[in-house]
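Give me structure tokens for this 175-residue protein.
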Amino acid sequence: MNKKGAIEMSMQTIIVVIIGVTLLTLGIKFVSDTMSKTTGLSDTMFESGDTLMNDIFGGSDAVLSVRPDMTTIRVGDTGSAKIYLRNSGSDDGNCGVELKVTDYSGTDQTAIAAAGTWLRLKSPTNTIKAGAMLEKTLAIVPPKGTKPGTYTTEITSTGACEGSTGLIVIVKGSA
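Here you go.
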């Protein structure tokens, strides 16, 4: 009987070892597949980020960009555009943003002056780390009484992010 018990014991041990090795192999395969998918996903995300940066800055070394560069809004409604500032210098620095309406399709100087008040940007001066980018939201709120037409704006950045670009705002009649 001792011999029969020893054979049963060694058969159970062999079966447990085979099951253990199988589970260990499957576990290693699962972890390996998961890690390779994660690596592929992170590579894809970095490529997407590079593509987005090229879309925003047009593949150039521009320090200032606005998206969209043309927007249509009704009087009394609120619109927005994104302003992107990039500090391409080697030191952290302050970047300021100035907004100015420079032209109106009806060449009415009063309309141009009034339009300057409905372009709103929170904290127009920010510190940006060297090589970093900052996204800001420009609110466009033409009040009632604004004349419909096409307004051309000039967006200028100063300091470490010195540059300029434009935004065209087409204002339609009342909402």
